[in-house]
Amino acid sequence: MYPERLKRAREAAGLSLRALAEQVGVSHAAIKKYEDGTNTPDSSQLIKLAKALGVRGEYFFRPFTVQLETEVEYRKRANTPEKLLKRIHADVEEQAERWKELANLYPQFPVKPFAVPVDVPVMVQTLDEVEQVAAKVRECWKLGEDPINELVDVLEEHGILVIFTDLDADSKFDGLTATIEAQPVIVVAQHWAGDRQRFTLAHELGHLMLHGRLAEDIEEEKACNRFAGAFLLPATAIQRQLGQQRRMIEWQELYMLKHEFGLSMAACLYRAADTRIISSEVMKSLYQQFAVRGWRKQEPKAPYPQEQTLLFKQLVYRALAEGWIGESKAAELLGIPLSRFHSERKLEGADAATHQ
Asked: Among candidates 68, 84, 262, which has minimal Cα distance to 173?
């Protein structure tokens, strides 16, 4: 047994030593000894530990294969609990391990390495130049100026892995960027509305494109916000929709922009000011009205559809079809019981086509 795995699983489950001990029926000191490696649980205790932590029994016996490399960049709110960040970190490392294990099964893994386009400027002096970087990335990736309907697919196509976590129930976490063996990883929350997921994905892409290229007087977070807006809703596109210059904008216009380009109404309002379609005074006035209406917490009418990733699951089934793994390993990689995997493989059950 690898004792570090027990600690990671406990942190991912958000349990204290005492809380886990109560579920297993031992003392918290015993759990501490298991995690320190000074004592080893017997087979019955291992079964209880696996059940309490929601993992398969073999999880404790797999060697560590990955660690999140470089400094992990969290976009978090000031009141984000450290306990939540530990849970997310452990969850991401577990999912990343499964990615690496899957990659090692392939003679040639069909996810290409990530690279910043060669045409991206070495130095960015102003926020307006950030707009040019976003435009250059869209050009190099052959995205044109149309809406990006499946942003996750675009990122994965260019070597950026996307991981969804379902641990942030209170919306206290705003994203994570890390590197696993030179492969960038962006993490977002599964339950967020699609426009928030997309802005976070684009913001974190901004970090990958702009890091080390910004002039000293430019705040990187602000630059990445500008990049995200420009990448999802280019200046030429919003000017085509709203015109070159306006004295006022209707709420319905922002709502339609949101559902065409997958950017929140608030972010579309900022884009109108960034591109000088409206003045900063008009933007502030509208944003005040926005806040009064309670739209900062929840924007009106239908939310934008959530993003999803199918790449990992597709590659698991491809490995199964090629005979590189069996059903048990496929179920383990997908993190589901073997009985459920059998059902999904036969396309039985309501969620067979949508499980991530």
From this structure: 84
Fold of 67-307: Arc Repressor Mutant, subunit A (1.10.10)
CATH 1.10.260.40 boundaries in the chain: 1-64
- The string of pLDDT tens digits covering residues 229-251 is 999 999 999 999 999 999 999 99
- The Cα 55–Cα 24 span in angstroms is 14
Question: Are 198 and 263 contacting, i.e. CB atoms less than 8 angstroms apart?
Answer: yes
| Number of helices and strands in the chain (H, E) | 16, 4
CATH of region 1-64: 1.10.260.40
How far apart are alpha carbons 177 and 164 in whole angstroms? Answer: 12
The first and second tokens of residue 46, run together, are 């291992």
Whole-angstrom Cα distance, residue 317 to residue 352? 13
Contact residues for 140 (Cβ-Cβ < 8 A; gap 6+):
117, 119, 120
Which two tokens mark 196? 């928030």
Query: What stretch of H or E contains 76?
Result: strand 69-76
How far, in Å, CA of 187 to CA of 228, rounded? Answer: 15
Write out the residue limits of the CATH 1.10.10.2910 domain(s) in the chain: 67-307
Q: Beta strand pairing status for 161-165 and 183-189?
A: parallel
Distance CA 209, CA 229 (A): 14
| Residue 325 backbone dihedrals phi, psi, to 5 degrees | -140, 165
Global pTM value: 0.81
**What sign results for the dihedral spanned by CA atoms 260, 263, 266, 271?**
negative
Structure tokens that stand for 26 in this block: 């031992």
pLDDT band of 70, cuts 50, 70, 90:
very low
Residue corresponding to tokens 């991401």: 92
List the beta bridge partners of residue 164.
Answer: 188
Are the beta carbons of 227 and 205 closer than 8 angstroms?
A: yes
